[in-house]
# Entry
Amino acid sequence: MCFENQVYYRFHPLHGQEVEVPYRSRRGNDSVTIIDPQGVQLKIPAWMLLPEASRYDLSNEAAISAVALLRLCDLLGIEAIHDMDDERKPAGSNDAKKHPPKNAP
# Structure
């Protein structure tokens, strides 16, 4: 069963174009095979064909603060390379204690 649908995800090269969807993947990975206007078959995530996918956008302001990302690095045990003012570091953050010099015992 073949049907047509639109690519709603605005960062996909086929955004706004009608494509044929000959079938869905049966492997359960939620991807679809599409046929673009030139007849080329492509596999893309099924969510890119949903109208809700058009909500994704770029912003001039970060949605996650640098402090939150640094805290995530600490939580995951990842050494973050950063240069933040002391006043912007997370409360209780002390890089000297968390990340001693490499030659320290």
Q: What stands out?
A: The chain has two helices and four strands. The helical segments are 66-76, 95-98.
